[in-house]
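Hey, can you fold this one?
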Amino acid sequence: MKTPTIDELRKKYYDGDASLEEERLLKRLLQAPDAPPEWKEEAELMEILSTPPEVVPPAGFEHRILERLQREPDFNAEVQPTPVKRFFRPWVYATAVAAAMMGFVFIMQRNMEPEYTVYSDTCHTAEEAKAEIENALLLVANTLILGDVADDLGGPCD
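Sure. Predicted structure:
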């Protein structure tokens, strides 16, 4: 069996993985007569951490707990609805129905409206389509003539 080093024992102890035997071995190593002073301080700290404090309950504590338990409500008893709950119950249902109807209307409106995309036909008449095409061609022509591209292409064709 391999004997663990003090560093391994410390790591296991502070990680909470040390067995009772490993903890005792660590305490013996830390309290050895030839151990450095800082080890002895650590052994004192370990002793403080491993000794639970004595807790003394205040006078009459048990009596107060028993009284409190007797005053606790019976959770198994049937609960009577309060007037406030009776008043709000119809409003809760009405609100739920209204919210469902609003959601339904929103979904129907969204599905009934056409969505225009880049590829959609946005012209409603032939004249609008003709004007749209002429504008697009003019834009392309102006870009080619005014830009540096016209210089690279050379002169006009005869």
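The radius of gyration is 43 Å. Let me know if you want another pass with a different chain boundary.
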